[in-house]
Every structure is written in C-alpha cells, then in structure tokens.
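Q: How would the structure tokens look for this protein?
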Amino acid sequence: MTIHDAVRSATLRLEAAGSDTPALDAEVLMRHLLGWSRTDYLLNRHQPLADDTLAAFDALIERRRQREPVAYIVGSKEFLGLPFQVGPGALTPRPETELLVEWAAKWLAGKRDKAAVDVGTGSGAIAIGLTHLAPAGSLRSVIAVDPSEAALNWARKNAAALAPDTPITFVQGSLLDQLPGPVDLVLANLPYLTPEQTDSNPDLAAEPRTALVSGADGLDLIRELLADLPRVLATDGAAILELDPSQAETVAGLARSFFPGATVGIQPDLSGRARFVTIDHLRSPPGS
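A: Here is the predicted structure in token form.
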C-alpha cells in the first residue's frame, strides 16, 4: 500500500463517519505522522507505506472517527500563520476569528500606547495574534482573561513560544470583572452557541462546553459583557465581538442601547455571513 492509497482509504472511512472534511483530515494526519509539509506529501505520496506506520496512521484515523478534533490529535492549530498548541480544555482557534484580530489591528493604525483586552482568551490566539499584527508602538499592554485555568495554561504556553517579549498579562476571571478600566480596545470571542447547536454537532463534543454554549439563545455572556462594557471602555475606544450570524442584529441593537453615541457596525466573515459586531467612534460624555 502506498501513502496515497492509505490516505484515500482513510478518507472513505472518515466520510462514512460523517466528517465534513474527510480528505483534508486524512492528509493532515498522515503528514503529521510523517513530519512532512504539503509539498513533501505531494512529491512523495506514491511511496510504499511501512506496516508499522500504517498501524500508527490507522490509530490516528480511529481517533478522528470518534470525532476528536484534528487539532487535538496533532497538538497544534495554525492561526494567523502561527502554530498554536491546543488540546483538551481550550477551544480550537477558528479561521474566521482571524478577521476579528485583523479588524482590531487596523483600528490601532496611527494610534499609540493603547491598552487592549481579550475576553475569553482560550488558547491565547486573539491576544497573541494581536501583538503580531498591531502596528509598532500602538499597544502598551494586552490583558487576556479567561475563567478556565486549563485554557490559561494553554495560553501561557503559546505566549512563551510565540510572543515571549510582548506585554501580555493573563488573568483568571469572568468577563470584565477583574478590570478597573479604562481600556482602549476590547476583543471578545465568547461562547455564543445554543445547547441545540452544540448537541447536534458531534465534532464539538471533545471541546469544552463552557467555551461553546451560553444560555438558551447563546447570548447570556454577550449580554453581560455589553452591560459592563461602558464601565471600562475608554470614551475614544472600540470593541469587536464575534457571534453567530443569526445573532448579529440582536447584538447590534444591544450595543446601540448601551452606546447610543457610537458607530455600531456588523462585519462579515469570509463567506459573507454576519459574524462580528463592532463598536467605534464613541461619543465623549457631556461636559468632557
């Protein structure tokens, strides 16, 4: 059996198990096992596969058939071109969240010494990604908050490996409770799924439920964050929240109620679906 034959056979097994990306999953797991880049794989995939390597590959495929995330199996997930360590206890970074960080970095353009907070940091992808994309001199500090010590352990590991000389402070806590304010920029990818959405998707079973679900309509934590945001957000600051497309209008309405003088926008993801709500151009308080 060649490497290509093994990947093709594994693709059929994953497809039968309900994987949304069976061919990609099989190839990624094979390349992980062999330590190959995609170019290596394309050039050498017709080589014969040793029996012991095939057995190891079959074991990886079986883990994926049981819906363990590929990122957990290989131990990493790329985000903004950076290899983040991931595993049980932290949500795997999603590609759409890269747009959240890119929006924040653009907002920082031309600004100096701003303080940012990443609410619900998980593996640290947003906080660390922002330190890489932010224009030089625009960030004074980044605070990364999460209620889970397990998630913060992953975030600290990633910061040590990917951003050892950046001003990131990790704080265990709920939302903005630990922040006296003010901060200039708030980024939040909070849990926003409903129990039904999570229960109907077996690919989410291995990830921490508390990082996915937030009340009956998925908005409990987002409502709580928006209610406290006026306390800590600087009058010339901004915020961006990731959410489910079905929630965009509701969350934008909530944002306008808490920040009546701000520009509230709805930003799309790469598929054109409403994915982020932004708050910007805050009006200074009367008499300021």
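Residues 51-65 form the longest helix (15 residues).

The two ends are 74 Å apart (CA to CA).

Upvote if useful.
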